[in-house]
Each structure stands twice: as C-alpha cells, then as structure tokens.
Design goal:
elongated, mainly alpha, binds iron/sulfur cluster
C-alpha cells in the first residue's frame, strides 16, 4: 500500500514520527533476518553435508536438488573453525 503525499506530510509532522520509524525498522530487521537466514540454508553450508561425495551424512543419501538448494529442517550451520 503506497502512502499518498498527504499521508506523508501528516506522518512527517507527527509527534511520534521517530518512534514509528524505529518500530518499522525493528520489524523490517526481524523479517529480513528471517528471510536471509532461510534463503542461505543450503546443503552446501550444512555441517551434515559431505561435499566430495555429495552425500548427507544424516540421511546417508544424496539430497534432491530442491533440498540441496533450500536445505531441510535438520540443517545445521557449519562451525567456522
Ligand atoms: S540440509 Fe538437510 S539434507 Fe542437506 S545436508 Fe543438511 S541435514 Fe542433510
């Protein structure tokens, strides 16, 4: 939903403008973090994936392409050390 120029003028003069911006930023931040986290869960960066054999150690099989790209509920981040 787009704001009209009048909506924007009212918003910019409002006493709670700063608070509204802070609340919107918090909400956007949480949504973006969730989507970024979900969109970067792939077998390639999962601790259970054996890249040389392309097998999932947990399920002892090669995951289907869709799972390789999107990960699954058992996804675990690789320990970065
Ligand atoms: S995301 Fe799921 S299927 Fe892929 S390697 Fe990890 S546990 Fe296995």
């Amino acid at each position: 939903m787009a704001l009209s120029p009048d909506d924007i003028r009212i918003f910019n003069k409002g006493e709670k403008r700063e608070l509204v911006i802070i609340e919107i930023a918090k909400e956007l931040g949480a949504v973006m973090r969730k989507h970024l986290d979900e969109s970067t869960r792939t077998c390639i960066n999962c601790i259970h994936f054996n890249e040389p054999t392309e097998q999932c150690r947990l399920f002892k099989a090669r995951p289907p392409a869709r799972i390789i790209a999107l990960g699954c509920d058992e996804y675990q981040d690789q320990i970065p050390f």
